[in-house]
O-acetylserine/cysteine efflux transporter
Amino acid sequence: MNTRDRLLACLVAVCWGLNFVAIHLSLEQFPPFFLVALRFALLAVPTVLLVPRPGVPWRWVLGYGVGFGVLQFLFLYLAMAVGMPTGLASLVLQSSAPFTVLLAGALLRERVTGRQALGVAVAIAGLGGIAVHRADVDGGALLLPVLLTLCGGLGWALGNLATRQARAPHPLRLTLWMSVVPPLPMLAVSLLVEGPAQIGRSFTGLGTATGLLAVGGLAYTVLVGTVLGSGLWATLMSRNPSSSVAPFSMLVPVVGIGAAWLLLGEATSAAELAWGALVVGGVLVGSTGSARAAHRRQLRRDRAGQEAADDRGQHRDQDDEAAADLAGAQRL
């Protein structure tokens, strides 16, 4: 990855870190499954009417929508609704990064360099340190919310692989058309599990402070979390190896935990900040190594191309000389 792509990946991490606070606010008003359906329906309708098709095989659109849109947010929203703390959710969901690297190696045969592996290991150590510290402070996280969030991370990883395979010429179009997949299955799940009565009650009180904050949080998740964040992420995935992009998601909990502390009053500490710095360090180690390796590969390709061009030019000169000699001999 080049410097511009690394900065864009960091911007995505900020957008997604704040997204957890927005989700928390929305879940104060809406039931989780219906909230997922509503989130993507607000994107799906204008997408079908106004956005050109993404120009990739539909299996990758479906795979991206099921993995990133349905599985990730079904499990994440459910986990947060049943008690997963906002900051801790932003941490555990980043299990998508090692899931992506492992699945990319196993299914796509992507090569992971030693430096990338070291960077991921360091970042995972930082994430683990934050998790252990949170468990000690909170007296131990409930197992079910953690497992649900891990399932969301696996769904995100599957969506990453579909995005990588799609190699969309217009990544934002792919992101928007992905939003067409989740609304109907999530609405069906909501009607079966939450019921029409609970859905109807969620629209009462929208003029209250809680309701307005919920609507604002929903707008953030749609416009910033999905359109901006996911659009940039799809762009990065389309032009870089999955194993280079995925580790940047480990920066999300640093933002998420800080935002939860500042905006929701969730406690943080110097220890968590130190572990978060380790996460940042791991991402930098893995990404800078991959950027240098990619630069060296590009230089080798350019050098080989130049040598091939020189060889072709030399052959043309030799052919021209031979033709001139033949012409001279014929005149004699």
Notes: The longest helix spans residues 270-331. The two ends are 62 Å apart (CA to CA).
